[in-house]
Amino acid sequence: MADSQMGTLHALAGFLRREQARLTQSCMRAVAADADLVDADRLTWEQLADHLPAILSGICTALEEDDLQPVERDIERNARQHGNVRWQQGYRIDELVRELELFRQALDDAVRAFAESGSTFTRDQESRARRLIDEALSFVTLTSIREVIGERDRTIADYTTRLERANRELQEQQREVSDLHRSRMQITRSLVHDLRNFLNAFSIDLQLIARVPSRADAGLALATRQAEDMKQLVDEMVEYSVVVGDSSPICIEPVDLPMLFDELVTTARPAIEAKGLRLSASLDAGLVRVQSSRIRLKQVALNLLSNATKYTREGEVELVIAKCGDSQWFMRVADTGVGIAPSDTERVFREFERVAGDDIPGAGLGLAIVRELCRALEGEIHFKSREGQGTTFEIRFPVALKPQG
């Protein structure tokens, strides 16, 4: 009896294999005609067929073996692929289930046709065949649904991650906009405050010249100093806007450090000695050439030297350029000035911050300019300061700056 059943199931499997093309077409026509399968209307016949022929082949093998287990992995793989493809094609779960139900009906019709073809197909054998087919298709349906749900969950997780990232970016942009707004308001207040003070002093100097002609020289000298302070304020604003707004790549070139050192000393010495200060300058003889941007290095040094000069009333300003290991070199500017209070160390590099008081001319942009330049030059800023004793800024640069991007 067992051999007879196996032979009949083999015959049914052979019949289904021979009828595979017709079965697939019959199923696809039923899918295309079903009003509930809306997304199926957008697919070609090849897309509709998808992995159904491979699933049918697995079912035929199960009939030949009279057991689903030997082909369970193959059927599972094809079912997962079918579910994944249908998810990519926009199928809903109910559409996927309905489509597989139509495939089941096509197989059911084929089994009935085989039974009516005059073969020795007993009721028990037909019942056994239908149970195997139902078991296989139930497994396909469950596996396909799980794949769709898994893909849906992965997509939701991906969208959630993207949404959270976009939300964080939006919050960061909103914070930046808010900071920018506060910064612009601070710029306006700072400029209005400084320019008003300059203009008031300038007006007083002009009145002094008009009322007391004998003091015209003194009044003119004061007016000239106020004009120079106003020019310094505007120059700092222009330099900062250029540094922040410049998005062009840095022009990396061989920089002759002895030549740059001499240029810095020559440029900074007059202003330093005009205040009665000493300039102490030294260059490491073993440091001759680096790969960097000469003009930006000069900007960093001059801003630090100008800052040190402004905030030092007596003593000296020091400039040191030396090697720091094999891959770095440093630029150090130190002074014996007013120093920075511990509570102010966090804000020294912020725009428009003058931590030592408002009696010092300038917009408070020198160190903000240094910070932006050092970002471009990959410079590491280190500083230490003691209130009333002075400040030391040391910036370590790479010996060979690499091109950006």
Strand-helix topology:
Elements: H1 2-18, H2 20-33, H3 45-49, H4 52-65, H5 72-88, H6 93-115, H7 123-211, H8 216-245, E1 253-256, H9 257-274, E2 278-283, E3 289-292, H10 294-310, E4 316-324, E5 328-335, H11 366-377, E6 380-386, E7 390-398
Parallel strand pairs: 2-4
Antiparallel strand pairs: 1-3, 4-5, 5-7, 6-7
Helix pairs in contact: 1-4, 2-6, 4-5, 4-7, 5-7, 6-7, 7-8, 8-11, 9-10, 10-11
Task: Provide an overview of this structure.
Residues 156-183 form a coiled coil. InterPro entries: HATPase_C_sf, HATPase_dom, His_kinase_dom, HisK_dim/P_sf, Sensor_HK_Regulatory, Sig_transdc_His_kin-like_C. The protein contains eleven helices and seven strands. The protein has 405 residues and is an alpha+beta fold. The protein has two domains: 2-163, Globin-like, CATH 1.10.490.10; 249-398, Histidine kinase-like ATPase, C-terminal domain (Heat Shock Protein 90, 2-Layer Sandwich), CATH 3.30.565. Helix 7 runs antiparallel to helix 8 and helix 8 (216-245) runs parallel beside helix 11.
Label this structure with key terms.
single chain; 405 residues; alpha+beta; Globin-like; five-stranded mixed β-sheet; 11 helices; elongated
Rounded mean pLDDT score:
80
**CATH architecture identity of the largest domain:** Orthogonal Bundle
What is the CATH topology descriptor of the largest domain? Globin-like
Classify the beta-strand content into a percent band: 5-15%
**CATH homologous superfamily assignment of the largest domain:** Globins
Count of distinct strands: 7
SSE topology string: HHHHHHHHEHEEHEEHEE
Q: Could you say which structural class the secondary elements and strand pairing correspond to?
A: alpha+beta
The geometry reads as elongated
N/C terminus separation: 77 Å
Strand order, largest beta sheet:
2-4-5-7-6
- Based on CA atoms alone, the radius of gyration comes out at 42 Å
Helicity, as a percent range: 55-70%
Contiguous helical run count: 11
Low-confidence stretches: none
- The CATH class of the largest domain is Mainly Alpha
Q: What number of structural domains do the residues give?
A: 2
Organism: Paraburkholderia caffeinitolerans
Catalytic activity: ATP + protein L-histidine = ADP + protein N-phospho-L-histidine
GO molecular function, one term: phosphorelay sensor kinase activity
Protein name: histidine kinase
